[in-house]
Amino acid sequence: MAGVLSKHPNELNEMLNLKNIYVFIFLFVGGTCHSQKEDFNWLFGNHSISGTASYPVGINIFDFKEDPVKISDVDTIKLSFFSTCAVYNDGNGVFNYVSNGMHILGSNFKEVKNGDTINYNGKYFNLWVSKYPDGSKNYLGFNLSQAMLILPWPGRDSAFYAAYNYIYIDGSYLKDYTKGLFTGAIDNKNSTVVYKDSLITTDSLSPASLQACRHANGRDWWLVTFSHNHDYAYVFLLDPTGCRLIHKIQTPMNYFFGTGQARFSPRGDKYVLHETSGIGNFLNQSGHLCIFDFDRCSGWLGEPIIKRFWAKNIDLGCAFSNDGRYLYTANIDSLLQFDMDAANILASEKVVAVSDKYKSVYTPTFSAVNDFGYLALAPDGKIYGPGGNTLHMHRIDYPDEEGMEAQVKQHIVNTVSNSNAIPNFPHYRLGPEDGSDCDTLGLNNYAVAKFRYEVDTADYLRVRFTDLSYFRPEAWQWEFGDGTTFEGRKPYWHTFPKSGTYEICLTVSNENGSDTLCRTLVLGTSAADDVQSKENLVDIFPNPSDGRLLLTIRDYVPEQGVLRIYDALGREVHHQRVYYGWNDVEAGHLAVGTYVFRVEDGDLNVYSGYMIIQR
C-alpha cells in the first residue's frame, strides 16, 4: 500500500543511532531536560502558492520568540491547510516540522524524504490531492481539527514520535470512521521518514480531538482519544520504549463522529472535550462539553461533568487560561468562560463575548463572517482563534481574569489567509508532580521567570505587566527600576514617574530555587540613544498589502508616536497615531505602488522603511 514502509520500529532501533532520529506522533482521522519553546512558531493558512487562486493565499508564521509576537507570511512553499495542522519546533523555538495530515515538510519547507502520503488510504486521501501549476501534487490537507500531534520522544535527545489514524469511507460523510493509532519516525540527520503507519491499535477511534499531557514524572506523555461512539476513552503512554495503550475507560457518553477540540489544563488536572455529534444537520446539531478530572500519574480519567447544548456549527473550540483556572468555549455566536475552581463548574458559566458578525472581505464580491470557533492558548499567555475561513483572528488578552476583564478582542489579528486551521500543541511548560508517587526520575520543577507588558494608549507612562512564569513558581518579586517593588503574581498597572530607560526584573521561586528575568523598558524620547541602538523596532505585515496592514512597535514605548506614509514624490499621503505593540493601519485609499513610511516620536525618527501596495 502506498505510504507504508516495511521496517518495524523495533528493527529500526537496532539499525539507527537514535540520537539522530526525529520521530513524529500524530493521531489522524480521516485518513530530562525540559525544553519550553516547542510551540513558539505557529504555521497555518490556506493555499501557499500565490497566483493559483482568486482569493488571498499564503502561510502565516507567528513567531512568539518576539514580544509582541512577530507575524510574517510566505507564499512560495508547497503547503496547504484545511483544519488539520501540526507543527514542531525544537526547545529553542526553531521550526523543525509541519504537516497538514497528508505529508510532512522540514525546516527548509521542503518535503522530507518519504514524508509524502502519510495516512494514505486510497479513495479518501485522493479526494484531497490536486495539482500545482507546475504539475506537482498539492496535498490540500485534511478537514479535521486536532487530527495530528507532533511530540518529542521522551528520553531521546533528538527524537520525536508521531501517531495518527486512518479514515475510511463507509457510504456517507457521517459514517466516516478511523482505524487505530499509528506511529512513524524521522531520522533528523538525514531528514528521512524511516517508518510510518505502524499500527498500535485496531479499534475504531473518533475522527479528531487528539491531545497530550505531560506525565507526572515530568518526561513521558499521555495521549487521549475516544472510540467512534465516544463510549470509551483510550489512554496511550509515550515513553522511551514507544507508544502503547494503557487504559480503555468506559464513559457515560454515547455520540458518534465528534468534531471540535480537546484540551488538557496547563495544571494537568483537567481534560476537556468540546464537540458536536453527528446528530442533526450541519448547522444544528447536538453539542457536548465534557469536563474530566485527570490523574497524570496513572493516566486515569474520572467521571465527567457533561453539558449538552444545541451546537450551531461543527467548529466548536475550547482553551484554558495560562494559569488553568478558566476554561473558554466557543459556539459560533458566543464565547463562554467556566471557573475550574468553582464548587459547581457548570453554574460558573459567564458570557464573555457575543459575535459582532464582522465580515472579512476577501474580494469585492466575497466576504465571510468572523464567528467564534477553534481556540488555542499561545506562549504569550493570550488565547487566539480563527474566525472560521476568514482573514482575521480573535484574541483574548487576559484569559487569567474573570468575566469581561478577560478582554476579548474580536477580529483583531490580521492574517494573509486562513482555512480555519490552528496548530495543535500540548502544553509544554508543565513539569513533574514533585513528591508524588510518580516522581521517580529525579526531575524537579525549577521555576522559570517570564512576563510581558502592554501600555495604556492614553498614558504612555502607565504599563500593565502580566506574569507568564512556569514550572510551578510559588513566590513573585517585581522590581520596576524606579525604586518601587511589588510582591505577588499580578501587579497589574504600574505608572512610571517620567520618560527614560528602566530595567524591569521579575524573580520567581519555589522550594527548588529561584530564577530572575530582567527586561529593558524604554519610555519616550528622553531615551533616544537606547532607541537608535536597537534593531527590529518596527515591522509591518503583510508587505506587500492592499493597504490594510499591521504595524508593530516593540522594545520602545513612544510618547507621541506617529506613522507617516510618503509617495514617490515625497508627499505625505497618510498619517495616524501609533503606540507600543500592534497598530492597525487602514490605508486602502492609497494607489498601487511603492511608498516610504516613517515612525516618529516627536523629533525622533524611530524607524523608516518601504511598503508596497498591490491589488
List keywords for this structure.
5-stranded antiparallel β-sheet, mainly beta, disordered N terminus, globular, 615 residues
Explain this structure to me?
This protein is mostly beta strands and 615 residues long. Helices cover 3% and strands 45% of the residues. The strands form 13 sheets. Strands 1, 10, 11, 12 and 13 form a five-stranded antiparallel sheet that branches. Strands 18, 19, 20, 21 and 22 form a five-stranded antiparallel sheet that branches. Strands 14-15-16-17 form a four-stranded antiparallel sheet, with no helix packed on it. The longest helix is centred in the first third of the chain and has 7 residues, at 9-15. It starts with 8 loop residues before the first helix and ends with a strand. The model is unreliable at 1-34 (pLDDT under 50).
